Amino acid sequence: MEITLLGTGSPLPDPRRGGPATLVRAGGQTILVDAGRAVVMRLAGAGTLPVLLNAVLITHLHSDHITDLNDVITSHWVMTGIETPLNVYGPPGTQTVVDGILMMLAPDISYRLAHHTDTLTYKPKVVVTEVKPGATFAIGDVQVKVARTHHQPVEPTVAFRLEHDGKSVVLGGDGIPCDTLDEICAGADAYVQTVIREDLVKLVKNKRFLDILDYHSTVEQAAQTATKAGIKKLILTHYVPSMQPGQEDEWRAFAAKYFDGEIVLGDDLTTTTI
Ligand SMILES: [Zn+2]
Ligand SMILES: [Zn+2]
User: Which residues are tagged catalytic?
Assistant: First the structure.
């Protein structure tokens, strides 16, 4: 199982980091988790394309995690030779968001259909499956489990556990530690968590920015969740504030205070195998 951090940024613009998106390749399946800013560029950087995705999983409907889902949909559609569904799994509300994206794209869809009357005879086909905590499903022979996360007032939000051939990774999405996250992480080989640095966020005396401390795991909390669950490899992403070049060891040290295993973090396209 190969895990690639496609986008390690957050809503804060950073010219070096795309928005939240992670790629998991296992058992011949290519699975995208979240679709933040620049996701299609980073998919290309990882040697793949929307048309090659077997599924897109969405952890929650915060804009930074879905802002380029429209680009995934369009790029997937225009590169298909026959009508091919793009399979999207996300919490309740995902269908409404996808319907809205397709409405936004309606002019473009009509232009392309009019231009390529002989070869493009179908509209984008996005098959949305809304999943609730406790749901299980399969993408090829990758098994997926869904759990509730705690990212209030964002509701609903979910984590995904992907299992294949005895290996497992949990994509925690955004949120603070909670029992259901602990449960789905238990015994997993790897755990991908979006994180913030509390010490650095607190330096910014801006109420709206400080509010983010209420509903995101700090680096230390992610490490504590990993230790509690017996995780082997902790993978950190969605750095707030943006991790600057040369700061990697400092971020890693915050996690290492609470976690003895391997800690993976870095720039976009950082890849690790379990
Ligand atoms: Zn986020
Ligand atoms: Zn969020």
Answer: 64
CATH of the domain at 145: 3.60.15.10
Length of the chain: 274
pLDDT category, 152, cuts 50, 70, 90? very high
| Residue-number span of the structural domain to which 13 is assigned | 2-273
- Here the tokens at position 270 are 């950082």
Q: Which helix (DSSP H) or strand (DSSP E) does residue 21 occupy?
A: strand 21-26
Domain count across the chain: 1
Closest ligand by atom to 7 CA: 1
Give tens-digit pLDDT for 79-95.
999 999 999 999 999 99
Under 8 Å between Cβ of 43 and 50: yes
Integer Cα distance of 173 and 247 in angstroms: 23
Ligand 2 centroid to Cα of residue 80, in Å, is: 31
Cα–ligand 2 centroid distance for 219 (angstroms): 16
Whole-number Å distance between alpha carbons of 131 and 273:
27
Q: If residue 159 lies in a helix (H) or strand (E), which one and from where to where?
A: strand 158-164
Residue 119 has pLDDT above 90, yes or no: yes
- Ligand 1 center–CA 115 separation, angstroms: 37
What distance in angstroms lies between residue 254's CA and the mean position of ligand 2's atoms?
22
Task: Please tell me the predicted confidence (pLDDT) of residue 164.
Answer: 98
Ion ligand 2 nearby residues (CB, 5 A): 62, 174
CA-based torsion, 66, 176, 29, 44: positive or negative: positive
Distance in Å, CA 77 to ligand 1 centroid: 26
Q: What is the pLDDT of residues 178-204, one digit of tens each?
A: 999 999 999 999 999 999 999 999 998
Host H or E run for residue 221: helix 219-229
CA distance 142 to 163: 6
Ligand closest to the CA atom of residue 196: 1
Ligand nearest to the CA of 150: 2
